[in-house]
Amino acid sequence: MDSCNSNASAKSFFLVRFPALQDYQLLLFSVFLLFYLLILVGNITIITVVVVDPKLHKPMYFFLTNLSVLDILFTTTTIPKMLAMFLVDAKTISFQACFLQMYSFHGLTVTEALILVVMSYDRYEAICNPLHYSVKMTKRMNIQLAASAWITALIIPAPVMIQTSQLAFGETTKVYHCFCDHLSVVQAACPDFGATFQNFLGFCIAMMVSLVPLTLVILSYVLIIISILKIDSREGRRKAFSTCTSHLIVVGSYYFSLAVSYMSYRADMPIDIHVMSNVVFAILTPLLNPLIYTLRNREVKQAIRQFIVLKIFPPFKNILVL
């Protein structure tokens, strides 16, 4: 912070990025551009095949498309600005753009946690109540569950973002990050009780919106496992559990990267590690989700093969192996 007084008013923020990697901007640009393109291609592919293939018009895949749309929006809030910083040294971001990015990043983070809860509930109904599944998980119910997740998640961060925008910032405000997230912006504010309280409040809300959804997911899978163990045939148990493995891996990757991000902020580590851990959280799950669902889900793999051969390369449709 170069100047920090009660009369100062920040018009923009200076993103410090990775202090130890200032000589590798082109390499960082290339790596993050590759990741972003893979995320876009993977998630757009998932959305496309689910929309065009009638066999995938099921609740599980409806929620998967929500997850893919979410991952595209989630990475688009941060990576394009990062690419501009690495390529043309665009280190500054306006006050309004910073808080819009912060709100979008945290709102979409909460949305992902809630969508994962909804997906676990869908698996619970499919395995524990199979006879009533089609009655409960109607198209209207699916839309209501997804909409509730989106709307709730976009409401939760709003009060904290508004309060944080009222903090005092210096005329030259350095944010030690590649993008604006709550904790990095609060740490850049002028030190006073308001900043300390925002730091504590942000941590409490982060714990709440992480642990409550995680608890619901764990509870769902405890009930699912109990139900699976009651199935008589070994093959039946295997098939029932196979419908959950992709979702479990996605949940694991999401909460693992989130935990690493939280711990790096609270531990005494170099600033580059703090920044990298948060960047990994912002990229890892959106990058892995399409791979997990295409590699481990037979229906999705078959739908992708059909789409490629029948829609993109129709002359080769006779050699399609179903």
Automatic annotation (TrEMBL):
One Gene Ontology cellular component annotation held by this UniProt entry: plasma membrane
Acetylation among keywords: no
Record carries keyword Transmembrane helix: yes
Classification via PROSITE patterns: G_PROTEIN_RECEP_F1_2
TM region positions: 26-52, 64-88, 100-121, 142-162, 200-229, 241-263, 275-295
Topology with respect to the bilayer: Multi-pass membrane protein
Matches recorded under Pfam families: 7tm_4 (PF13853)
Keywords: Cell membrane, Membrane, Olfaction, Sensory transduction, Transducer, Transmembrane, Transmembrane helix
GO molecular function: G protein-coupled receptor activity; olfactory receptor activity
G-protein coupled receptors family 1 profile domain residues: 42-293
Domain of life: Eukaryota
Main subcellular localisation: membrane
Name this polypeptide is given: Olfactory receptor 2AT4-like
